[in-house]
Amino acid sequence: MSSKRNTFIIVSSFLILTLLIVSGTYFYISKKQENLLDSIYKSSHLNIVNTTENLIKDKLNATLTISLALSKNNNLHKIIKEEDYSKLDYTKIINEIKENSKYKNVWIQVVDKSGKSIYRSWTDKKGDNLLFRNDLKSTLTNQNISTSISVALFSLTLKARTPIYDEENNFLGALEIITHFNSIADDLKENNVDSIVIADKKYKNTIKFPYTNLFIDDYYVANKNANPQLISYIQNNNVEKYVNIPEYIVENGYLISNYTLYDKNNDKLAYILNFIKVKDIDLQIVKSFKIQIIMISVIALIIIFFSFLLYIYSRYIKEIKLQENKKQSILDSQSNIIVITNGKEIIDANKKLCEFFIDIKNLQEFRNKYKCICKAFIDMNDEFYVIEKDYNGKNWAEYVLENTDKNFKVAMKNKDGNIKHFSLKTSRMHLEDYIIATFSDITQEIEQIKKDKEKDRLLFQQSKIAAIADTLKNIAHQWRQPLSIISTIASGMKIKKELNILEDEEFKESCESIISSTKKLSNTIENFTNFFNKDENISSFSFVEALEETINFFDSIFEKNNIICIFNYNNDFILECNRNDFSQAILNILDNSVYALTNKKAENERFIFIDFKDNILEIKDNAEGIDNQILSKIIEPYFTTKHQGFGVGLGLYVVQEFFVKNLGYKIDIKNVTFEHQNKKYSGTSFIVDFN
């Protein structure tokens, strides 16, 4: 049996180790894969950013090249000098650029040196002064070459401006080429990237004649070739989320990279949202890594498997060699009393047996005096305390061995005649009929359990008596008015009957009043009975509902003592515990406040405030607080500031035990100063944090 048990333990250990390796490999692969994916995604994001940045630079350079080339045209110089602006027409050039390049939307504008527009390729409007544009004004003033990205009336565009000089180097004006982001989006599309170019929402009112007519909420979409499905996706998932992506996110099968464009003041101008499908990203390195780690884990498991086989074999050989002296070495190495027995007589034992039975010197003397250790067992009148008797055809050792799921004990007297308690465990020796019985001293634990049980019994018995006393007081208070009504009506009826002036109708009304009052008496008993007779099991219930029920239970006490109770809350939650214990704990807190108010405050200024906000309950009164020197002691058992006839010091201790020890919440008691109806008060605040 022992060998089989050891084999089972070894096999179990191997399986556990295998499980740990497999789970460890899984978590390592998951973590490493996550890191690799992050690295790949970050690299992809940086590549997209670099590509986007280069494409923008290339587009600006190409735009500038077109502008430089057109500004050198002698015919243009002649037209500007002669102010024959009707001859300006770049339609053919624009169409050639459209047909022979990837730039499909090129706009051309010519401005004279005074800042007036003398030609626009996209509209017939001209003659207006453009010096309000700082970029164009700078070119006219400084005759410099410049490029920019900006938002204007029509769209978010890329611009290039060059000064116009004639052959004599006379400054004539400026030529501006305006291009769009469509070709940049097309180039990115060739790299499996879908782009959406979005102008910042602050430019919504600036763009009065939108070139694309595409908007996502207040954000203008600048590229006509934007994917409509992605536009809908961004709109449905809140565009603010995407324009505020710090770098990139991965969702819905896409790596979404954000490239932000800034103006010269470093304010956000626009956003280029690049979508690349995750399946288009090369993840081969992740797959290779997973295969490598799995192969290493398999090899490790094979090595461990053969190591376990070798270990089992060597252990088997060792057990054979040590079989003869195994029993005694095991026995003497234990700190507990261990005996080997068949249940009727002792076969062997360790040294602890002789140390406990001081009247014997060795095992042989023990056999001569006791024969079996069961002779020393004391009957404790407890089914879990084993004694020497027949257990349905089995002796004590066989009975314990058969019922391993039970916690058996024995009691024996030591050398001083004191009763000692032991936990009893048994096991059977391999290939033998003998049973190993282990006796572990649990005397201190048993005595402590008895003390704790007695203490708890006394505490909760006293708390229960106090609760019953309070209940009887409440019943008596609520009975007084109905009893008074019954007494008055009955006395009146008796007098009128004696005087023979009792009318039938009056008699009927009096009887109905008496019946009504008796119903009130009955309802009072029923309400108090229902309140204290709830299910003792743990249940789920509304916190606010249970709190309101407890407050209502105290209504008569509040009314009797002229106390105003104000309950406010901003949320509710489901509490799982014994509802009766919860109500009793709240009652104990309220009872302390009532006692304090009736002893310290005038009847016209007695308040109890109950606030439940953000899962924090605060119950405070205006009874001027508690002496700070005793504030920390009020939750100790039997500590009370009340007169002996009003409390035994268990109310707040029961609250502490319920909320902290049983439910695991935090409580705090402190003196507070607060304001109510423009008047300052001080009192005690009891706080329970349910978070």
Number of strands: 23
The H-level CATH homologous superfamily of the largest domain, spelled out, is Histidine kinase-like ATPase, C-terminal domain
Count of helix runs = 18
Radius of gyration: 47 Å
Terminal Cα separation, in Å?
52 Å
Widest sheet, order of strands: 7-8-6-11-10-9
Helix vs. strand class: alpha+beta
Under CATH at level 1, the class of the largest domain stands as Alpha Beta
Give start-end ranges of low-pLDDT stretches. Answer: 643-649
Percentage beta strand: 15-25%
Report the principal-axis shape: flat
* Whole-number total of structural domains: 5
CATH architectural name of the largest domain = 2-Layer Sandwich
Q: Describe the sheet with the most strands.
A: 6 strands, antiparallel
Overall pLDDT level? 82
What percent of the residues sit in helical stretches (DSSP H or I)?
40-55%
Using the coordinates shown, work out and report the CATH topology of the largest domain: Heat Shock Protein 90
What descriptors fit this protein?
single chain; 691 residues; alpha+beta; Beta-Lactamase; 5 domains; six-stranded antiparallel β-sheet; 18 helices; 22% strand; Sensor-like_sf; HisK_dim/P_dom; kinase
